[in-house]
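TEACHING EXERCISE
Course module: macromolecular assemblies
Task: Read the component lines below, then compare them to the predicted structure of the full complex.
Student: A.B.
Group: 4
Components provided:
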Amino acid sequence: MEQIYTPPPPKNVFNQPNLKFNGNGGSYFGILIVNMLLCIVTLGFYYPWAKAKKLSYLYSNTELDGSPFTWSGTGKEIFKGFIKAVALFAALFILLTVLSRTAGPVVAAIVYFIGIIAIVPFAIHGSNRYRWSRTSWRGIRFGYRGNRNEFVSLFFKEFFLTLVTLGFYGAWMLMNLRNYIIGNIRFGSGEFKYKGNGWDYFVMNLKGYLLTLVTLGIYGFWWQANIFRYFVDNTELHHEGKMYKLRSTATGGQFAGLIILNMIILIFTLGIGYAWVQVNVLKFVAEHVEIDGDIDLGELKQTEEEYKDAMGDDIAGFLDLDIV
Amino acid sequence: MYPGKYYNDQTSALTQVNITLFDTYLEFKPVENIKATRHSWNFDEIQFLEINKNFVKLIHSTDGGLEIRDPEFIQTFKKLYSHTRGTSIYSMVLRGGTKAAFLTAGILFAILVICYFFVIPWGAEKIAGQLPKSVDREVGQAARAALDETIDTAGSKLLTEFASGINWKSDDTLRFSVVKSEVVNAYALPGGYIVVYSELLKKIQTKEELAALLAHEVSHVNHRHSIRKLCKDLSTSILVNTILGNIGAVSASLYSNATTIYNLRYSREYEKEADIEGLELLRTNHIDQKGMLDLMKILSGIDKKIAVPTFLSTHPLTGNRINYLEQQIKEHPSSYTDMPALNGPFRALKKLYH
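Instructor-supplied answer key:
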């Protein structure tokens, strides 16, 4: 009888760096509440610094292989981006007012729609450049190497196809954009790859949707687990011929536990428990992502430049865009 | 000497080092390589990141960083370092833990309460005072379009004729309308649209009462109560939205506030003002002020269970109203005439709605 046997990789190279989130609800609540206080006292002008504080807390409490991530963005950068973003929206608003007076509300509505859609890819691009450039681990900066024109034309092509197929192409659009974005993220000399496939993603979501309907929503948790797994399991990190694979260990049942617990917290604290809810989610994500492969995390080299323009990130914030 | 891990910003390799602390700087050297050069960092070149009680990160402006998990080091370093730096409200909260967080939350709540009850009403009144009258008209038109009530033309004509016999002392072009409805109600929209429901006209017995009702509604218009209330509600929703950080919702609330102005309830304060200013209008026109009192008595006599009490519920308690109206009349006695010009239209109205 033939036996299939794969030898385990040599012990000294194979490793499983641990991902961990150490934040706790109480401290995070403290950060958020001080942010809120200062925002109110300054009539909202503190917002960029508040955002920097929040990100700094969340990043530095996320640990990979015993070392924390560091957010090095500053309130000043976000503030400058914020002002530029406000100016952009103000310009759009003035244009719309003029148009609706001269050319009528229909034209203005169309221009508004096109304007917002046109801003989206620039915002995603800018946001990724800024966010990743300000993220570091053991001094090694992340970076986003995407080319703006390339990404914008890819976005419009995909968006157009989604539009003419009445949304059916959406799954392919999402996967193609994600492949592009994640494929351009660098972790120093390490390169991320994402291997999403529109057809798989479409089938998975169609199945999830139908089963959720049939089971009166109960399957929704398992659908969620599948979406999460599809995101995590298709992500890889490559470095000098070596590789890390990410793997999700989250099950639908665990997702159900997390979501139900968080809903109970939110309802019974009238929303004040939001900090604890977010901490629960981040802990959950960190606990359920397994990393294994043969990269030596000590060998990553500094390759990425600094990028300090936060405008795209602020626009993305205004439009409530989900990055990646 | 304290243990720490050093990275040099070139690669992600971590090196075990031994750190020595001095008053204004620190020095460290790799544990395994005695011959390596000593690094020396001044405190003012270091960014201090306190991740938690037992873990800190020191980031140098040019020479990499240190990760340190030694409680003793952290304590000693913080003492030395804090001399060169001020302390922030965040570190206070992080150190104070949940207790400090809740204290801050308490302060925040107090600020919100003060804003809600004092700052916002005050600011909103100021803003409302600055708005031109054209805003009143536009809001009124929007509200009327949203209401879309069928106006009874014959009754409206008679009511307008009745109202034209009275000097309203108003800058607005007043428009009086009657709407056929089973509800006992009357309302005024900004910009001068005054609507009386037929059911209320049925209850009214004398022309003085009708004059008093109109005087009350015109006073709402003259004192721009709708716009003032709108400003207050808007400011409140903007405050709420700032806190929730949701900018997009502001425009939505602007819109819904304009269209549902009908649902605005005058606060009792505004109602009282309209009552008293209404009396003043009656006096200027030499109409018997008792009409207002009689109107209140009619309203208080309505069986609240049957008539939808929109008019009553948002207004001051009728007993209370009668009291202050009686006092006002006592304080400002005034002569009055019979106003024969009002008789014709009033009788015609009563004939239409009986």
